[in-house]
Amino acid sequence: MPFLSVMQTYFRGERIESLYLLVPYGLACLAFAAVAVRAERNAFGWGIAVPFVLLGLIGVGVGGGVGLRTDAQVAELTVKLEQSPEALLAVERPRMAQVNRNWPITLGGYLLFIVLGAGLRFGLHADWAQGLGIGLLFFGASGLIIDGFAERRAKVYTEALESLAKERGVP
Question: How many separate helices (H) and strands (E) can be counted in the chain?
Answer without folding.
Answer: 5, 0
